[in-house]
Each structure stands twice: as structure tokens, then as C-alpha cells.
Amino acid sequence: MASSSRDEFSSSFGFVMAAAGSAVGLGNIWGFPTQTAENGGAAFVLVYILLAFLVGYPVLMAEFTIGRHTRMAPPDAYKKLGGGQSYFIIGLLGLVTVGIILSFYSIIAGGMVAYFVEPIGRILGLDGVADWVVSQNTTSNFVFMTIFFLFTLLIVSGGVSKGIEKWSKRFMPLLFMLFIVLVVYVLTLDGAMEGARVYLLPDFDKVFDPQLLTSAMGQAFFSLSLGVGGMLVYGSYTSDKANLTRLGWLVTLCDIGVAIIAGFLIIPAMYAASSLGTEIFDANGALISGPNLIFQVLPSLFDSMGPIGVFVAFVFFLLMSIAALTSSMSMLEAVVAYVVDRTQVPRKRATWYTGGVFWVIAVVIVFNYEALFGLVVTAATEYAQPFLGLAIVVFAGWIIRKNVLLNELKKGQPEIEKTFFYKIWPIFLKVVCPILILLVFLQTFNF
Ligand code: PFF
Question: What residue ranges are annotated as transmembrane (predicted)?
Fold first, then answer.
């Protein structure tokens, strides 16, 4: 059961950096812009913003408060608040899901690390090594996935305040800085403005397109790291004095803000690449997305920029690697927290054991990439995460006694009773969020 000497974030700033670090990741900088390009441009952006505020934020707040109230990881936290055996299983399902997300995420993140190493190889004149590094064959995928895993393990094994918080406080400001510099630079490139125009142009016919709604909901859950325990566990390490609603706002705004601004990085960069002769449309006339976008279109843009391209590539892939690392830390922590709470195994060892299990899953996926990769991504993000999110709102709205969560919020915010949020949050958890999630979820299955 929960140990008495549980680690805690040392400051609200540290907590926000860690939680924003979890939220801001490949899902924002890569996933969001490509989803936007595929789903009617600004129409998708609008639906996404709406869902992030109407569903994402209330669910995030439920996770933070459940975590802080119970000071436990998901399965036990749900059990303690009256969830019984069924919610214990749902909690475990969340941990399995987050482990699977960690496994496929590390493979993509390994690719980012490889492309970050490549320009260094070129500068050192090691062209043969640089070519192998980005060859994307099974061996190089395996090597860089493992390197990325090791970084994640080293940081998480340091603990919450001395590992996750310390590194998030260093990485996140650096990430924001690199990000802004890159966006400003890319927008000055020839052809970039055409990309910005395409990004901003809404195709309103698509607003009620079932595909758009499913993608936007999935994106909101993935991007805010919801349903799988990472945010709940971070909540379990916050001080009672912390103003959770404000911190939750900051995390949500960072997440949405980075996603929207990333649209001004990726889509204009694609059009800039196009003006230099790179093909940016696939056989169906749609903008290239997925791995080909990041690992082919953008590198060909960087290549065609001359010497400065090496530097831009280095900054871009460093940014992506950092964004991925602060997210993977929270995925691993969700499961490590449970193992540490539950067993006598010391934290360092628990981290290596847990990480080892997920690393093996990642190895299996790397070696069966064609058959497994797409499958696990869809299963985890389009089905498991929204289902788990629905389970959490039903739990928070209907199963936990109403005052438990509201009283938890009051600890750090005695004045909260007067706020609008205090009055509407329970209604959102009980009615609005479940209905919205259910509607989107059902049409994913074509009901
Ligand atoms: N929010 C991360 C992203 O947008 O890339 C992904 C993520 C992190 C999902 C942590 C789930 C999680 F527990």
C-alpha cells in the first residue's frame, strides 16, 4: 500500500513543467498538424479546442484531484474511492495501455534521436555512420529505441523531485525556446505562407464528419495524456497547498498552445519543401503525413537549405527528442508508482524492472513493425484511451461521492466555492463529458 515517505514535487512550477512535459509531446508537434491537414484544416482546430476545454480539462482535473486525494496510483486509487473490483481492473487496463503507448512511442522517439545524431555525424565527417543512423532499418530502429528507453529509465529512476521534476524544469523552458525560434525561422522561408494559409483555411463541411470528431477526441485524450494514469499519478505527488484548477489550466493552455503553434511550423515547412521541389502530396492528393512527413519531407527540406539546414535539422530533432522524453517519463512513472506503492521493491530497481518489460514489448514491435505498429497505435489511442477516459468521468461523476473531489480542491483554494468552475465541474463530469465521449466513441464503431 502507499508508503508514508512518498516523494512530492517541490514546487508548483516543477509540477506544471512535469505535467506540461507529459502533455506536450510528439502528439502536439507531429500528430496535431498532420491530423489538421487531413481533417479540414482550421475546422479540425476549432473542434479540437472545443473538445480539449469541454472534455479534456474536466477529465484532467478529475485525474489530478483523485491522485492528490488518494496519494496512490490508479488501480488502488480507484479502489480506495469505492470503485470496487471493476475499477481495479480498469486501473490495471490503464497501466497496460500506458505501457503499450510507451513502447510504440519510444520507437518513433528513437527515430527523432537518430535524426538528431545524424547532423553531428555529418559535421564530424562520418558520413557512412550518419547514413546508417537514419537508414530506418530494423537494427537502427532497435538501437535508437533502446537509447531513448535508457534516457527515460535513467531520469525516472532518479525519483519524482530529483529525476522527473529536475529534468522537466530544465527541458521544458529549452523546448519552448527552441520551438519559438524554429517557428519564426520557418515562417520566413519561401512558400511557408502558403502553408500557413492552408492551415488556417477551414473546411466547414467537415465539422460534423465522423472521422474528424473521432480524430479530434482521440487527439485531445492523447495530447493531454488522459485516462492511462500518468496525470493521476503526477497529481498524487502535488502538495495540498497547490491550486489545482489553476495548474490544470496552465497545463491545458500549454498543451493546446503548442499544438496550434506547431501547425505554423510543420505545415508551412511542408510547403517550403514543396517550393524547393519535394513532393508533399500522396497518391490521393492528400498532404503526406505519418512517418514519411517527419522522416522524409522535413529532412529533404533541411538538406536543400545548404549548411544552415544541418543546424536547423539538429534543432528540430533535438526539440522533438526532448518533447518525447518529457512525455515518456510520465508514461513510465505511472506504472513505476504502482509498483513502488505496492511492493517493497526500491524505486530504482522497480524502474528498471518495469522499463525492462515495456522495452521487451517495444523490441517485439520493432521486429514485427509492419504487422504490429499500426495495430497497437490504433488499439491504444483510438479505443483504449477514450474508453478509459469515459470510465474515469463516470467514476468521478457518479461513483465517488460528489463532495470528496470538491473538498479536495478546496484544500489549496479555500475561495473556490465562489467560482464558476466549482459549480459546473460536477455537471460536466456527470453529464456533459460522458455524453460527448460516448457520442464520439459510438460513431467510431459506426453505430
Ligand atoms: N501527451 C503525449 C503527446 O502528446 O505526445 C503522449 C502521452 C503522454 C500519452 C503520456 C499518454 C501518456 F500517459
Answer: 12-30, 42-66, 87-117, 142-160, 172-192, 212-235, 247-271, 308-340, 352-377, 383-400, 420-442
Pocket of ligand 1 contains residue 225 by CB under 6 Å:
yes
Rounded distance, CA 383 to CA 257, Å? 25
- Domains of the chain are 12-201+210-444 (1.20.1740)
Q: How far is the CA of 243 from the centre of ligand 1 (A)?
A: 23
Task: Quick: pLDDT tens for 178-236.
Answer: 999 999 999 999 999 999 998 888 877 877 788 888 888 888 999 999 999 999 999 99
Q: Are 240 and 257 in contact (CB under 8 A)?
A: no
Closest ligand 1 atom, residue 229 Cα = 13
The 3-state DSSP class for residue 202 equals strand
Q: Is the CB of 98 under 6 A from ligand 1?
A: yes
Question: Does ligand 1 lie within 6 Å of residue 25's CB atom?
Answer: yes
For residue 281, the cross-strand partners are 287
Whether the CB of 26 sits within 6 Å of ligand 1: yes
Model confidence pLDDT, tens digit, residues 101-137: 999 999 999 999 999 899 888 889 899 999 999 888 9
Rounded to whole angstroms, the Cα distance separating 286 from 308 reads 29
Phi, psi at residue 59, to the nearest 5°? Answer: -70, -40
**Burial of residue 8 (number of CB atoms within 10 Å: 0-12, 13-18, 19+):** middle
DSSP 160: I
Contact 325, 17 (CB under 8 A): no
Sign of CA dihedral 152, 103, 321, 187: negative
